[in-house]
Amino acid sequence: MSTVTPDLLISNGIVLDPETGVESRADVLIRDGRIAAVGAGLTADGVTRYDASGRYVSPGWMDMHVHLREPGFEYKETVETGCAAAAFGGFTAVACMPNTNPPIHTRDVVEFLVERGARTPVDVHPIACVSVDRAGKQLTEMAELADGGAVAFSDDGAPVQDSGLMRTALEYSRMLSRPIVNHMEDLGLNPHGHMHEGAVSTRLGLAGIPGIAEEAMIARDILIAEYTGGHVHVAHISTGRAVDLVRQGKARGIRVTAEVCTHHFALTDEAIADSVFDTNLKMHPPLRTAADVAAIKDGLRDGTIDAICTDHAPHAAFEKDVEFTAAPFGILGLETAWGLTVRELVEPGVLTLAQAVHKLVVAPRRILGLAVPRIEVGEAANVTVFDATTRWTFEERHVHSRSRNTPFIGAPMVGKAWATYNRSRWTEAPL
After folding, report:
1. What are phi and psi of 69, to 5 degrees?
2. Nearest alpha carbon to residue 211 among 146, 264, 148, 155
């Protein structure tokens, strides 16, 4: 439940600076939506008080890859319901993808989404199309879209298949200081598969999506980024060889960054066999092998993978309640992101707590050229309250999205986002 709360005292918390890793026990006093004081033993009369004992207080988290479905697919999700899911998951900002109807390929759609987001406790940053109608033929008016509030460009769900178009897009985006976020897939190498191509798909008799389809496109885009000086961002990286390609590109000084979805380090393709074709395990790119998951964790550990995201992709029940081969790709992710991150990365020691929070706070905003919120006097208050110890089970009642397509109902989680504060709005997320 989100309430307008211009004045708030968050007491007894552990303030975490994800840029330095410094932790300090302190109270945070907010007045008129801004940080008024940070220190021990703060008091304030007539102010709502929240006891954060045993919990951390960090700058607000951001998911840089979500699908809010509005406009055009409001039966799956709306800006309002998607932002409710984000706030429950601990996020105060999201970047939304352009595969809507109409697509985010004109300035009016960008501004519509920004305005819709302003009604919620979550900042909404539209990612606009690279090409008109996401058809891969003609560039959008990129400068106009950027002026309207677009933070990046992508035809997500469809790759920019034409190399010449990608070259021109990177040249324009370089001038606009915006990245190109490509859906990394060479369509000629994907025979319309439904899961990862490998031993499990062969055993199940399903057409597969080979890792080489992703890797070939990443290799191409890194080379074009090197040639143009543009910034290419690898969306939802999923294979070990893809991680190696990004690592090599960074070592050569090429402007390439990468994100990984929580499901790609929490599950493998074996889950599809174990679940007997649960369509909530069908996503694009698909779940890969245990070796790929291990390589992704190595890439997170050494900094090759910059950001953690969800690719939150709502679908209505009637769309998913079909045969596996007929179901659309995509699962929910906002509500389970932190519980999976702690369970799979922090508790096993892949990342420290500060490193994990950095990939949710700092990295996404730096990639997109956005200001990073700070818990400092005078700054606009934008915070997430969370812990990394609570053990809980994700249940259907925790889903705040309009849709329910998640394979994690009944799954154990470690760590909980308890509240967010942004735009003078306080949102608590109890179990």
Report:
1. 70, -15
2. 264
Q: List pLDDT tens digits, range 243-263.
A: 999 999 999 999 999 999 999
As given in the structure block, the two tokens for residue 370 are 């956005």
Distance (Å, whole) CA 134 – CA 194 = 22
Same domain, 210 and 75: yes
Assess contact for 195 and 279: CB atoms under 8 A. Answer: no
Token reading at 9: 């005292």
The model's pLDDT over 293-323, given as tens digits with 9 standing for 90+, comes to 999 999 999 999 999 999 999 999 999 999 9
Task: Say if 406 falls within a structural domain.
Answer: no
Q: Within this chain, do residues 391 and 298 fall inside the same structural domain, yes or no? A: no
- CA–CA separation, 168 and 158 (whole Å): 17
Q: Beta strands 307-309 and 382-393: pairing type?
A: unpaired
Q: Who's near 135: CB < 8 A, 6+ residues apart?
A: none
Instruction: Report the alpha-carbon distance of residue 340 to residue 345 in Å, rounded.
Output: 8
Name the DSSP letter for residue 328.
Answer: P
Rounded Cα gap, residues 134 and 31, in angstroms? 44
pLDDT digits (tens, 9 = 90+) for 35-76: 999 999 999 998 999 999 999 999 999 999 999 999 999 999
Strands 425-428 and 2-4: antiparallel
**Interatomic CA distance for residues 144 and 136, integer angstroms:** 19
d(CA 318, CA 320): 6
Show which residues are catalytic: 311
Neighbours of 307 (CB within 10 A): 25
Q: Give the span between the Cα atoms of 382 and 282, in whole angstroms.
A: 34
> Are 153 and 215 members of one domain?
yes
If you search the block for the tokens 């799956």, which residue do you land on?
76
Residue 312, strand partner residues: 66
- What pTM did the predictor assign? 0.97
Whether residues 80 and 132 share a domain: the answer is: yes
**Do the bridges between strand 123-128 and strand 91-96 make them parallel or antiparallel, or are there none, so unpaired?**
parallel
d(CA 369, CA 327): 36
Instruction: Please tell me whether residues 312 and 263 are part of one structural domain.
Output: yes
